[in-house]
Amino acid sequence: MKTLDEFVVLFAEQLDETDPSNVTAQTKFRDLEEWSSLLALSLISMVDEEFDVTLKGDDVKNSETIEDVYNIIVSKK
Amino acid sequence: MAFLEIKNVRITGLATAVPKNVISIDNKGYDEEYIERFIDQTGIAERRGSNELTSSDLLVMAAERLMEDLHWEKESIDAILCVTNTPDYTLPINACILQDRLGLNRECYAQDISLGCSGWVCGLNVLSALLRDGKNKRGLLLTGDSKNTWGPGNNALLFGSAGCATALEYDPNSDGFKFEFGTDGSGYDAIIMPKSGMRNMKLDENSYKEFIDSFKEPNTVPDLKPIDIFSFSISHAPKSINALCEHFGLDYKACDYLVLHQANKKINQHIQKKMKMEPERTPSSLRHFGNTMAASIPITITTELKGKVENKKTNFICCGFGVGLSWGSVAFSTENLVISDMIEVDDNQFENLKWV
């Protein structure tokens, strides 16, 4: 299973307008200016491919930081 | 009973009828950037739709053409099954209206199933079960929706109107169908028309006004939870196909075509890539017809595979997934399949018919 750091990198790759160096485990991703439902789909899609875990809409909605998302993935593994 | 096998029944033909009227997103007053993004994400450039034609109108046209092309006498039809989310009336069911409009025997078994995206696969199961022992020999599966292309908000942009007829016949030499089905009703509100049944109807003996008000703004298209639908679809469709193949010892990569319910491009591409299937063997009708609900799988076969599958034995795996939430996968083979030319129906085709 990929580490939290690796997940942060994968997460940053989904973003178009945010500098990857500004993305950390503690980033509150839903506050990002470019955050949209389309990015949520990209995130779910990436997590499905990389972790074989299916996130639900509520999983994304109820997460504040990127680490929160990672912890949900771990709990579903 | 997630897995079912029904032998001795085969698909002999398919026909599709759509409204002649083409609805393009361009002429709806959206700006260019939105249109470009919408087509890129959904894969839907245009759809067919009509303010006049109902689902039974389209299904009559498809069924009549198919019976003609198969040289099937009306009297020989033993059963019809209609799968629609947009029946002409809530009461009575479409199948009764269709029995009469098609001039079928009064002894013909007729039933509706209210399912959408998984409906064609579920319909194949129910209808083939009625024919498997050979006492009833011919059936028509009639799947389709209409008047589903207009509504407040943007959801209507996804949906197209179509009626598809699928002919099934008893054949003691046929391997029949292998199925996998499942349901997750906890996602009932992911695709829902809240103002379509009794739940939100206000019955109040003291206030006729409140009762009338509760009917206002009825749904024409479903309310959608896009993220939940996406996550459901990309996980459950591959799981269902894999479960079907594992249970029956099939290899989906060895089939000729994997035909998926046409939800939208983002969902379908993800599934296709996850299954590592070539796009050529995962045909799509989204671009010109949109999401046609219970008609999506047969319209994809009739519009994208016509000319490619009729003259040889062809192995199909099809997967429907969506409203319910429910899903179904099926494996079957066709030989000498008849695919009728697509019928384009004029808005005024049935203007002389009088309806209650």
Q: Tell me the span between the first and last alpha carbons of chain B.
A: 41 Å
CATH topology of chain A: Non-ribosomal Peptide Synthetase Peptidyl Carrier Protein, Chain A
Characterize the largest beta sheet of chain B: strand count, sense, and whether it forms a barrel. Answer: 7 strands, mixed
**What is the element string of chain B, with H for helices and E for strands?**
EEEHEHEHEHEEEEHEHEHHHEEEE
Number of domains of chain A: 1
- Strand tally of chain A: 0
CATH homology group of the largest domain in chain B: Thiolase/Chalcone synthase
- Per DSSP, the total helix count of chain B is 9
Oligomeric grouping of the chains: heterodimer
Flag low-confidence runs of chain A.
Answer: none
Order of helices and strands of chain A: HHHH
Helix content of chain A: 40-55%
Could you tell me the strand content of chain B as a percent range? 15-25%
Number of helices of chain A: 4
pLDDT below 50 for ≥5 consecutive residues: which ranges of chain B? none
Helix-and-strand structural type of chain A? mainly alpha
Helix content of chain B: 25-40%
Q: What structural class results from the helix and strand content of chain B?
A: alpha/beta
Rg calc of chain B: 20 Å
CATH architecture of chain A: Orthogonal Bundle
Description:
- The complex is a heterodimer of chains A (77) and B (356).
- Chain A has 77 residues and is an all-alpha fold.
- Chain A has a single domain (4-15, 30-76), classed as Non-ribosomal Peptide Synthetase Peptidyl Carrier Protein, Chain A (Orthogonal Bundle).
- Chain A has helices at 4-14, 37-51, 57-61, 66-76.
- The termini of chain A are close together.
- The model of chain A has no long low-confidence stretch (mean pLDDT 91).
- By secondary structure, chain B is α/β, with parallel strands linked by helices.
- Chain B has 2 domains: 3-184 and 225-345, Thiolase/Chalcone synthase (Peroxisomal Thiolase, Chain A, domain 1, 3-Layer(aba) Sandwich); 194-219, no CATH class.
- Chain B has 9 helices and 16 strands.
- In chain B, strands 2, 5, 6, 7, 8, 15 and 16 form a 7-stranded mixed β-sheet that branches. In chain B, strands 1-9-14-13-12 form a 5-stranded mixed β-sheet.
- In chain B, strand 5, helix 3 and strand 6 (109-113) form a beta-alpha-beta unit.
- In chain B, helix 6 (226-248) packs parallel to helix 7.
- The longest helix of chain B is centred in the middle third of the chain and has 23 residues, at 226-248.
- The radius of gyration of chain B is 20 Å and the shape is globular.
- The termini of chain B are far apart.
- The mean pLDDT of chain B is 94.
- Chain A binds chain B through residues 37-38, 40-41, 44-45, 48-49, 54-57, 60, and chain B through 41, 225-228, 230-231, 234-235, 266, 270, 274.
